[in-house]
Amino acid sequence: MSPLPQPFPKIDVSEDYNPAIRLYGHRFIKEQTILEYAAEFLSVVFSPKWIGKNLVNSPLPTREELDNWPVNLPLKYKPPIKLNLKLFAFLGASRIDGRHEVHKQHFKELIDLLNNSIRSNQERTQEVIECLQEFLRGFQGAGLNRAWCAQAFYPISASLLTKETIWNESKAKNCAPDDWFSTISTNDRFIFYYSTNKRDFMARGGELLYLQLCNVFRTDEAKLHDMASQYEFPPTEADIQQLYQDLCQGLSRLNGVLPSPFDKLVDFIENLDIETHRMTNKTNKNEKKQMIECEWCPEDSWPEGYLFAVELKRLMDSTLDPTERLNLFMTGCVLQVLRSICAQSVRYAGISNKCKCPLGYSWIFTVANPTTQQRNLSQHNLQAIQVLIQKSLWNEDLQENAKRSANKTKSELYKEAESRYAFKLLISLGKKLGIIIPYKGTRGVRFVMTQGLLRYLVVALLQPGERITYKDFLDRLYLHYGIAVEGEQLEDALQWSGLPPLNVTQKMVLNDMLQTGGFLTQLSDYWSIVRNPFISSNKHLGDNRI
User: Who's near 371: CB < 8 A, 6+ residues apart?
Assistant: First the structure.
């Protein structure tokens, strides 16, 4: 077997020469926004998808489908394009230089069609149309500085999930279309004026996270049971079939709980011009051309995938406002990317310095107003993370693989890996989430605990309604993410980071943050209880409550 990471699913990865892609999977990249990681993941969950010719009818493929996944057949899915909806919602708030004349013409046509559909006096009709535009524009998510069709909706409902679509401005200048329909009248014309496979924004990160979950449920159950025992997961999460069922049920909740009239409104706007909708979502002979192929994740990433599955299950099981659940889900996606990079780096860096976190690395978090000593510790820890990632990228086998590329030199591939993936990706995503500061520059960067992160961690590390001691909460932080704040976890993290043991404490501040969030009850100076206050939407709860 190759010493390089093996792919799941088992597809041909012989042309993946970039060391970061070959190490972490195809692919996590710096340019993808937090929202687009989540939206892409949800697009796979809620779009029609296939393994070969077999249609997958559930959020995740069945365990039988996962166990019998054919070789060299990637997962394919087909999200909708919805040009009418995007044009109506985003044209007025898009870059002026990205509004071609044919776009403005069709926008006016949509307004006329909508105007004819509203039964009211003319003055009132105009007011209704403006209100609808403002309402839908309120769901504008990522890409505010892009052309209208390249923007993404905030995915509060599955009806707002759309395929990446980019207007080819240079081609439109060189070969100006006569009107809107000349850009979409045939499949050849559509792909000439619009690109739906560039992967500039929906860059496969969400797909990789989805594949990590699939990878978990086809991993040898003995390995999963050993890990469940190590982490002391309750029976409902140690039972892989039960976890699979709960996760599938939970993922369906991310479809959104907005009233059905909202989805009907979205469909109504998209179908104002039924011909555009039909031409851009053709089936039959063009079906294969419109499918998106997922790539692969490392087969040996199943441990962090298992943790992700458990944490998502707990998040979906908690009775939360749908907007808050979605925001916490985005946080979970980012943390999974960061955890995946670090855990996979440990496997291929060849370091002998071990830590007590099963994932093999540590993150030292400070609080909002740390001492100079605490700030320096976190900064040195991030430097240790950088060394870990660099050592893994310069693994001898990855270097040999990079040399085989016929299109780029080894030096070019490593420059690309270090500028767009790996450590710079970790820093970039951490800053976007607000857990790595300062926001600008790389000097003195460090991890910082925020109320938003702490809220996610309580929901993800505790079952709904569960109560654990403060000490057990610190243990779970370290076991799941390698996050060290104080106590024995911090001592271990200092040793792993190559730092001397120091007398550092942040206990009272972290206590205050938990108490401010309504998650902690102080029973005495030495005894505190951390609680997940959200009740379960399922009948069964964990057995390990205090």
Answer: none
SS (H, E, C) 212-230: HHHHHCCCCHHHHHHHHHH
Name residue, tokens 């990878």.
Answer: 215
Three-state SS string over 164-211 comes to: CCEECHHHHHHCCCCCHHHHCCCHHHHHHHEECCCCCCCCCHHHHHHH
The per-residue pLDDT for range 490-505, each reduced to its tens digit, is: 999 999 999 988 765 5
65, two tokens: 């489908």
The span from the CA of 169 to the CA of 97, in Å, is: 9
**Pairwise CA distance, residues 87 & 173, whole Å:** 20
Distances (CA, A) of 306 to 303, 317, 392: 5, 17, 22
Q: How confident is the model at residue 470 (pLDDT cuts 50, 70, 90)?
A: very high
Q: Is 298 helix (H, G, I), strand (E, B) or coil?
A: strand
Residue 244 CB-density burial (10 A; 0-12 exposed, 13-18 middle, 19+ buried): buried
Q: Tens of pLDDT along 333-350?
A: 999 999 999 999 999 998
Q: Residue 37 and residue 339: Cα distance in Å, rounded?
A: 15
CA-to-CA distance for 120 and 132, rounded, in angstroms?
A: 15
Q: Which two tokens stand for residue 12?
A: 């041909």
Bridge partner residues of 363 (DSSP): 483
* Of 25, 147, 20, 38, the residue nearest 432 (C-alpha): 38
Direct distance between the N- and C-terminal alpha carbons of the chain, in angstroms, rounded to an integer: 47
* pLDDT over 50 (residue 482): yes
Question: Quick one: tokens of 278?
Answer: 């039909």
| β-pairing verdict for 292-293 and 194-195 | unpaired
C-beta separation of 57 from 39 below 8 A: no
Give the list of residues 6+ apart from residue 534 with CB closer than 8 angstroms, or none.
318, 319, 320, 459, 464, 465
Q: Tell me the two tokens of residue 221.
A: 């159950």
Instruction: List residues bridging with 77 in a β-sheet.
Output: 49, 292
